[in-house]
Amino acid sequence: MFKLLFSSVLLTVFLDFSSCQIQWNDNWAFGCDFIGNDIGSANVPGELCRSRCSQTPGCSHFIWNNWNGGTCWMKKGDICKSNAIWTGDYNTVCGVLNECSNFQSSNIESLKGALLWSDEFDSLSNFESNWIQETGGHGWGNNELQYYTNNNENIEISNGSLTIHTRKEWKNNMRFTSARLLSARKFRYGVFEMRAKLPFGRGTWPAFWLLASKRPLDWPSDGEMDIMEHVGFDPNVIHSTIHCKTFNHMSGTQLGKTTRVNDVFNQFHLYQLYWSDKSIRGYVDGKQHFQYDRPANSDSNNWPFDNEFDIILNTVVGGDWGAALGIDENIFPQKYVIDYVRHYAHL
Fold first, then answer.
1. CA distance 304 to 298
2. Which residues form the GH16 domain (predicted)?
């Protein structure tokens, strides 16, 4: 009976191949994937993957593929079937334990209050008063390969936009140059929004994020909120993540979500964050895809998000994550074009 159902569903999916739509059979489907948030794996037949996930603490969704004779990859975090990514590989199956995530998607526009601060990148003098160009080529804790320059060497203000230029060139014994911009102003709570086009290609890693202002910084305990990260080997997939002492990638407990966006390289998109004393929510083009609520037993370990944070804009080359599948050195130079960055009060 299972084989008959399997064949029937496979035929249905095959017939719909041209539309590249995931065809769900209850809470599982062929030819799809969920990116990131792995908590473990097991070599089991495909029909046992769901039950193995349900028996694993923290597992909320899974994928199965035929790697190593058949592997179930168990994953954590709030998830919807709409977050699944089409692969077209019918040797993979993805599934969720529950119908959808437990947050109610909110309209970001309804959460915006007054505009408190912005950089529209309409003048170099405004830019220089709003941002600090951090410098260095020490790897930045991620084995990054770029040297961050100052004195506007890798930034350009023109036509109402900021461009971060990332180049293949030697600087202070590093093979690439780029820019890392730290806001001169510190922020606590609000709605943050950037309109941008991203660099492309394997080895690039642009980001728009908030890092605790405290110095000396005790990372991850002091907190980090990643509004947008994109790694070039996984094109058009946007990551939003929080880091703190309890939840961080160093201990394998980080909390984040991904969403697929159409053509982030040639089209401007909005990358947005809502941050209050009760909740952190991530959006792309006004559509919510991530939420982390203040735990009922909150303390500085799981909620260091009542302090001041800085905005950071940067493009990494390589790094532990960015170079996970190597670097295509033929893609440089690259541009990270930012139309504006805005901070609103939250309602």
1. 9
2. 84-347
| pTM, 2 dp | 0.75
The catalytic site residues sit at 224, 229
Q: Which of 36, 313, 328, 335 is nearest to 203 (CA)?
A: 328
User: Using one digit for the tens of pLDDT, what is the confidence trace for 299-309?
Assistant: 999 999 999 99
For 173-192, write each residue's pLDDT tens digit. 999 999 999 999 999 999 99
CA-to-CA distance for 157 and 154, rounded, in angstroms?
A: 10
CA distances from 68 to 37, 72, 89, 120 (A): 20, 10, 16, 51
- Name residue 17's amino acid: F
Going 249 to 254 to 259 to 264, the CA torsion angle's sign is negative
**DSSP states of 274-304:** EE-SSEEEEEETTEEEEEEEPPTT--TTT--
d(CA 272, CA 284): 6
Sign of the C-alpha dihedral computed for residues 107, 111, 115 and 118 taken in this order = negative
| Residue 298 burial (10 A CB sphere; 0-12, 13-18, 19+) | middle
Q: Which domains does the chain have, with CATH numbers?
A: 2-96 (3.50.4.10), 108-346 (2.60.120.200)
Is the Cβ–Cβ distance between 257 and 78 less than 8 Å? yes
Q: Looking up tokens 């690439």, which residue turns up?
A: 176
Token output for 123: 């003048």
Q: How many CB atoms lie within 10 A of CB 337?
A: 18
Is 241:215 a contact under the CB 8 Å cutoff? no
DSSP state of 109: G
- Strand locations in 10-125, DSSP E? 24-25, 28-30, 32-33, 38-42, 59-65, 71-76, 85-86, 93-96, 112-119
